[in-house]
Design goal:
Elements (H helix, E strand, L loop, with lengths): L9 H22 L3 H26 L2 H33 L13
Helix pairs in contact: 1-2, 2-3
Length: 108
């Protein structure tokens, strides 16, 4: 089998990158219970979505729309990460662990 990376379409390479990043992010969400690792996995998933938005904008010929949506996602992602890290700090202070299973004791 002759496989030459130079002959692939750049959009196909970007789509492959999106799939790889999404796969890594989903695996990280499913494989760990540590809150910090969950936040990192969510960040990886978000980066794949940003890459997909830019790729979709490029493919549709509306790169400006794709880039503006990507910037909006990055801003929202930063806020979510900051809130998630603040929750992780409070869970660590209260329970002494970053295990997500500790959050189940907060139910009434």
């Amino acid at each position: 089998m002759n496989f030459n990376l130079a002959t692939l379409d750049p959009l196909a390479i970007i789509v492959a990158g999106v799939c790889i990043l999404a796969g890594i992010g989903f695996y990280g969400l499913l494989a760990t219970r540590n809150l910090i690792k969950i936040i990192v996995a969510m960040q990886i998933l978000t980066k794949s979505a940003v890459l997909a938005l830019v790729a979709a904008g490029t493919a549709a010929g509306r790169i400006n729309l794709g880039q503006s949506l990507a910037i909006t996602v990055i801003v929202v992602d930063t806020i979510v990460a900051a809130v998630g890290l603040a929750v992780a700090v409070q869970v660590r202070r209260r329970f002494g662990s970053l295990d997500a299973a500790n959050l189940s004791s907060l139910r009434r």
